[in-house]
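Model it.
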Amino acid sequence: MAFFFRPYPTVRYRVPKTNKTVAATNITKRFAVTNFLNNSKATFDEYFVQDGERPDIVATQYYGDQTLDWLVLLVNEIHDPYFQWALSYEQFNSYLRQKYGSVEYTQSTVHHYEQIVQAARNFTDNGVQRIVPEKTVTVDYTTYVSLPAPQRKTITIFDHESERNENNRHIYLLDLNYTLLIKEQHPYIFDEGGYVR
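Modeled.
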């Protein structure tokens, strides 16, 4: 994220209870890269963020340019890179301790109950092994206890938070062929009438 805020405009901000005025990054403005991409035939590659990978590392590996970390975030509409980006194992455990008190508490406390409406299954289609994922719906405790054991599922706080974090690992990266066009727009993205929302 070293380069994420570089193109953002600044505003003069008066520090309360002082006579000091500082230049602050105007985080209320952001480049809506999706507006630009919707008008083109851009293609994307799926990417799974590995443990500990930051946006600048992904940008370096994929684009060969760490300064394109902002593009990785904006293509995925990540506006809060601290909580919308996949946390590393250590960060995740630290987050759980800070929010809930301990990791053990999250592993032993129910977040919600689910009914399994379709069990996961494997099948072969023209010689290709395919997996149909499990489908569930959230239910209240009364419904949960009335269900037969194979149709019910308890989701702990740990399970819930872990699934959210794992979902953040799945991102898309703009095809390399479009980066030059985006780079050309980058210095002007906050100009009046640009792709700002």
